[in-house]
Design goal:
Blueprint (H helix, E strand, L loop, with lengths): L2 E5 L6 H13 L15 H17 L3 E8 L5 E9 L27
Helix pairs in contact: 1-2
Amino acid sequence: MPLELHRVSSDVEFNELVQCVCESYAVPENRLWRLFRRDPSPAGFIELRDRLIREFRADPNACWLKVVDTDIGDKVVGAALWNTYTENPYPTFKAHPLEAEWWPEGELWF
């Protein structure tokens, strides 16, 4: 199982990357994952993928890395999002509300 580490550079790479992440949180089930992927349908997958792409493109400090297994056609077997800063991004504490815009207000189902 030769593994290779690659930097994610194109939007197309997010399909397999997000599939890997979803499968990783599904078995064993991680209920916290439901906060990030509320809708397990195919439409929910697309919404999650597109949201991750938007967030990645909007953050100049973001770097997605993926690990592929070259024995099975470069299948993504792991991924991580890293944020690297050259300066402190929080020089002073500023309280602000956390907003999960993808989660309908007032709705809990887990």
